[in-house]
UniProtKB/TrEMBL annotation:
Protein name: Uncharacterized protein
Stored InterPro entries: Kinase-like_dom_sf (IPR011009)
Superkingdom of origin organism: Bacteria
Length: 376
């Protein structure tokens, strides 16, 4: 039997939906969708959905405010059919009740189960959805933040800027500790990259804050009918940050493959260009993408001290090497940030030599890991 939810949360959902439907609503079953702060709830009552999804704030009430703001902004203000619809919310209890998108399934589950080759169409839908989200939300930041301000205080400039406020100092510290300091022309390029990401101009768009394959639900067969989820850390930032997941592995994967060869890069860019014409400019697009990918690799480099304590052969070690090299390949493809690219390759080589005693393959070639190989 599924574990019962905490009594206050259970009661809050019943009260919330009873008020909404002006008739008694009971929670018949509560299925926690581990490890997330999410449950599929079966309801009893007249003229109510049989099941809904309930999400609650794990760390701060601001998470629920942000989720509610983003979903109502996208589906209500923009009429965008890319996310679940909100049914009700109780921000004092940190609860948001949404439509149940079943039988759609998370893409990362399908990739782990079947491999990337079996889900080429779904990966394409994922790439398009990321571009469509950005294209639909450019130029609408004022509307989004007005809606969010109505629910609680927020500083839009700080919300956009804090995503990179600490990155510069942390990058220098991590690189120096590893023995590959970022200096000279590479330091100048890092400054240029962070300036691009902090002030994205026409590329300013809404992100859910976690553009990974676990946060898109789609059908296993027939039309993909994709829906993006997980907006508790949403906010406006550089659109191309949402493209990084197509080029550089996130926390779950050893490699994501070559998005140019698979066509995912084109699916994303065409979708983005419908709302951001500047995405057609090879130089500007390439620089922004390279800046986003290299910055992500630097963020992941902060894990070095932890990974260095792990046993030889731990899969997180070659993952970090691949992250640096994938970011470097992307920058090279777009002829951007050559000095930072050289730094990333030197750092990857240093890590490979340092960790080469393990039983993993440290070739540095993308073919060492098939696309979307789980980290384990």
């Amino acid at each position: 039997m599924p574990a019962a939810p905490p009594a206050p949360r259970h009661a809050a959902v019943e009260v919330l939906l009873t008020d909404l439907y002006a008739a008694p609503v009971k929670v018949d079953a509560w299925e926690r969708l581990e490890p997330w702060a999410v449950a599929r709830v079966t309801l009893g009552g007249a003229n109510v959905p049989r099941t809904v999804i309930v999400k609650w704030a794990r760390a701060s009430p601001a998470e629920s405010r942000t989720e509610l703001t983003a979903l109502r902004f996208l589906s209500g203000d923009l009429g965008l059919a890319l996310t679940p619809c909100v049914i009700a919310a109780d921000l004092s209890a940190g609860l948001v009740v949404m439509e149940d998108l079943a039988p759609r399934t998370a893409l990362d589950h399908l990739l782990r189960r079947d491999g990337a080759a079996a889900h080429v169409d779904r990966l394409a839908a994922f790439a398009r959805a990321r571009g469509e989200l950005s294209a639909a939300t450019v130029g609408r930041a004022d509307t989004y933040y007005a809606r969010q301000t109505a629910l609680g205080p927020i500083d839009p400039a700080a919300d956009q800027g804090t995503r990179f406020a600490r990155l510069r100092d942390e990058a220098y510290g991590h690189a120096a500790a590893l023995g590959t300091p970022i200096t000279g022309p590479a330091a100048n390029e890092l400054g240029d990259a962070l300036a691009e990401l902090t002030d994205p101009g026409p590329f300013l768009a809404l992100t859910n804050g976690d553009a990974e394959t676990n946060n898109i639900l789609l059908n296993e067969s027939g039309p993909t009918d994709a829906r993006l989820i997980d907006f508790e850390h949403a906010g406006y930032t550089h659109a191309l940050i949402d493209a990084v997941c197509l080029y550089v592995p996130g926390p779950a994967w050893m490699s994501v493959g070559d998005p140019v060869a698979t066509g995912l890069a084109d699916h994303y860019r065409r979708a983005l260009a419908r709302g951001v014409p500047e995405a057609e400019d090879d130089r500007r697009y390439g620089f922004g993408l390279a800046a986003a990918c290299i910055s992500w690799a630097i963020v992941r480099l902060q894990r070095f001290a932890l990974l260095d304590t792990r046993s030889p052969g731990d899969p997180s070690r070659p993952q970090l090497i691949e992250t640096l090299e994938a970011a470097a390949r992307t920058a090279e493809t777009h002829r951007a940030l050559p000095h930072l690219t050289s730094w990333a390759r030197r750092t990857a080589d240093l890590l490979r030599r340092r960790w080469s005693g393990g039983d993993q393959e440290f070739t540095g070639r993308q073919t060492a890991f098939p696309p979307y190989t789980p980290r384990g």
